[in-house]
Write a structure and sequence with these properties.
Layout (H helix, E strand, L loop, with lengths): L7 E3 L9 E2 L2 E7 L3 E7 L2 E5 L2 E5 L3 E5 L5 E5 L4 E2 L1
Parallel strand pairs: 1-3
Antiparallel strand pairs: 2-9, 3-8, 4-7, 4-9, 5-6, 5-8
Amino acid sequence: MQSSDKLSIYASSSFSMKEYKNVNVHLHANLEMEIVLAYEGVLNMRIEEKEYSIGKNKAVIIFPFETHDFRSIQDNKSC
């Protein structure tokens, strides 16, 4: 992470599921585990400064305190 990047940390006390279309989520970390599923299109993710491309029907588990962001590179839906 570069010193100019601003890091947000999110906390939640329960399970939630939201559907997103064509996302661009800034660099952040969570106090809990996060599961991201791309069920249409492709989603680019950066987890702990390593790049990943997540295709249709693929999921990623992000552990607590791992910095990450994600963005759509084509029309997609994810949750």
